[in-house]
Amino acid sequence: MGIENRPYKEKFERSRKMMLWFGIISLSMTFAGLMSAFIVSSARPDWEDDFRLPDEFFWSTAIIILSSLALIFAKKKIKEGNLPQANIGTLAAFVLGIIFVVLQFIGFNAIIELGYRFTGAASNVTASYIYLIVFLHLLHIISGLIVLTVLIFKQFKGRYTKENMLGFEIGVSFWHFVDVLWLLLFLFFSYFYIF
To answer: Domain containing 50: what range?
Structure first.
C-alpha cells in the first residue's frame, strides 16, 4: 500500500473500531438498565430470595472464559504467521461458544424443572428478570457465533495476516465483550443468589 493511501486506511480502521464501540456502549447501557430494574424490583414483597442458579451456569461461565482464551491464542498465532494453529484456536472458540449455548439451555431447563416459568401462574418477578436478562445475553452470544463463523470462513481463506487484522480484531473484540458481559451478569446474579 502506498503512502498516499495510509491516511485513508487509518481513518477506515478507526471508523470501524468506533462503530464497534458505539454498539458495545449501547448494549452495555441496555444491560445496565435491566440490572438496575432488577435491583429496584428486589425490594418488592413478592421477590424470591431463595432462588438458586443451576450449576450449568457455573460451567458455562468457565467455558466462555476458555473461548476468549482460545481467541487470544488464535490472534497471537496469526501475528506469528502460524495460520494452522490460529485456525485451531478460532475453531476451539466456536465449539466452546456452542457448548456455552447448550449449557445455558440446560440451565433454563433446570430453572423450569424447579417450577419457575417466564410467564403465567408459575412465574414470579425474580425468575422473569433472570429469564429476560440471560435470554437477551444469549441472543448476543448467538450473534457472536455468527461473527465467529465469518472469522473462521475468512481465516481459512487466508484473509487475516499480521498486516491485515482489522476484521479479526473487531470480531474478537465483540466476542470478548459478550464474554465479559456474561461474567459480569453471572457475578451480579451470584451476589444475589449464591453467596
So the answer is: 3-193
